[in-house]
Amino acid sequence: MAPPASPERPDPSEISRLQELAVRRLAPVLATLRELGELFEAEGHQLALVGGPVRDAFLGRDLTDVDLTTSARPDQTEALLTAWGATTWDIGRAFGTIGGRRHGVQVEITTYRADAYDRQTRKPQVSFGDSLEEDLRRRDFTVNAMALRLPQLEFVDPYDGLAALAARMLDTPATPQESFADDPLRMMRAARFTAQLDFELAPRVREAMTEAAAHLSMVSAERVRDELVKLLLAPDPVKGLRVLTETGLAQVVLPELPALQLEVDEHHHHKDVYEHSLTVLQQAIALEGPRSVDGLGPVTPVPQPDLTLRLAALLHDIGKPATRRFESGGGVSFHHHEMVGAGLTRKRMKALRFAKEEIKDVTRLVELHLRFHGYGGGEWTDSAVRRYVTDAGPLLSRLHLLTRADCTTRNRRKAAMLARTYGDLEVRIASLLEREKLDAVRPELDGNQIAQVLGIAPGPVLGRAYKHLLAYRLDQGEVGEDAAAQELRRWWSEQPESSG
């Protein structure tokens, strides 16, 4: 089959610039690569650096993996690595991959592949090939189908991957229909690369993705989740999310996202919820990492990138389509959309096989994202502030960022007022945290003391009493053990069990 239509050849100066970048990036491992190449060549085998490391070298990105491909079979590769003095492992032997580590350099060497795919299960029927060009053709995209033969450092590019890279264009070595039929997950990978590498899709790739989007349902939830996570952690996930939506892939992976594209008519005005959600995600990302608050200085940062925050920002309004109501006078309401959204978030993340702790955290942030708007002009009592802090728990720093990011108004005066008001709330929270250690708040009587005061044994009633004292502590602050015991007796006098 003919290779894809070549992108317009880049200017020779651009090629020279890319080659200089590649040499600089590969410099730390070039000696090791040459040494391995000579070792394999001496035994009559071919060896080449391939795929992501070659692409990233030309892009000037840091080298994270050393992926090599060879004509040698796995047993031969393992023997050569052992003779080289490497510590080896063979966890990927079934797919032709042997790993090795020597002097701090880790490599993975895979035998040339010439796989066929079972179009029902999407699993490759592993078979080994005999040529580098054949191996490159089975790869997902032309920018990943470039290689560097070792030890000569001969650049191999049968599908014009370098021209595509210079044009920042994502295309496939085979036809995209064939490539995506082999593995539909490659469509999600295409969306991820647009976000991760700032590439554009070749028109034929976008068209094939749109036609084949439904085939993604054949891929396991775990593989889909992993690609979605990589996309969300990219520098510009919004670009990739737009690709998912525009091609129909999101309808399979994350249908709640395109559902946010609510029709807006001239009589019932509300924000474009889809665009708002993408903007909130971008603004949340901009707040990750070190930051400061007026009156506080540097505050506890949220790591960058942070999957929990990014998922919550993207999903915070997914309850709106189900709760939209048209009001008299032209208004639109979304009452309790945060609670509905929390339920939808939990359901979708479970379907994608996220970990229980991740599901709990993201769902809680979605549930709490509107809480600040009850703060109004700053008239919350200390009790309300305590509840805000304790309800957020360890998610407080992320809730701060999500709430700030959720302000997408174009009214600068309103935006400044909201930012200032939330800044005031953060200052109040910090003051209460320092004074009352709210991050470890407990009732002023422990379980044993409660049982002694009430003369009851451990059980459900003791649990209720504990919860009441915790609520009392949040409402009243620190009152001391005597006052807490007095309140406990008052509460007990109103319980049906007290007269028994």
UniProtKB/TrEMBL annotation:
- Which InterPro entries did the record assign? HD/PDEase_dom (IPR003607), HD_domain (IPR006674), HDIG_dom (IPR006675), NT_sf (IPR043519), PolA_pol_head_dom (IPR002646), PolyA_RNA-bd (IPR032828), tRNA_adenylyltransferase (IPR014065), tRNA_CCA-adding_enzyme (IPR050124)
Q: Which domain of life is it from?
A: Bacteria
- Coiled-coil residues are none
- What EC identifiers does the entry list? 2.7.7.19
GO BP annotations listed: RNA repair; tRNA processing
Cofactor(s) this protein requires: Mg(2+)
Organism listed in the record: Allobranchiibius huperziae
Show the CDD domains listed in the entry.
HDc, NT_ClassII-CCAase
List GO molecular-function terms, semicolon-separated.
ATP binding; metal ion binding; poly(A) RNA polymerase activity; RNA binding
What's this protein's name? Poly(A) polymerase
| Residue ranges of every copy of the HD/PDEase domain listed in the record | 269-420
